[in-house]
Amino acid sequence: MVNPLSTLPIINTTRRNHALEHATMHVLAARYPGVKMAGMSGPAGFVLYADLPTEIITDGVLEAQKRLANGEAELAIHTNCGTNLVVSSLLAGSVAFMTLMASSGKRKPNLFNYLLAAAAAIPVYIASRPLGPRVQRLLTTDPCRGNRQVRLVESRRTPHGFVHYITIGL
Questions:
Q1: Global pTM?
Q2: Distance CA 117, CA 1 (A)
Q3: CA angle (164, 156, 86) in 5-degree steps
């Protein structure tokens, strides 16, 4: 079955770039354990925050692209992806809100109601953690590169390290 998101060009390219962002972070983390990284994807490519020089980032991006093309789809899923946090937080927040409203009725919530809401939300947050990677697979990443290739890696030095701009195109 074809994922309907694959038919929406901007969303589809963002999902593919998000997968390459994750794969790049996996490759770099294996080579340089302990290096802190963060990224953000869009339809034109992705931004990677990592205190590594441009040459190393370029090598990592190209290896990640090659490995995704060779079928290593698991590289598209990352444990520290914001999707994981969003999914668990939305579910836990919804349960907390419903618990708060149900336990307080028509009166103003008191401390007990807030504690009850937190007690209900915490196990939901923990239990929902496995849903994040599934949502990544279905909605926020696509390991299929298609005919898109890395076109340019540019870096800027900041007081906190480097910001790398990876441009991807046809």
A1: 0.88
A2: 39
A3: 40
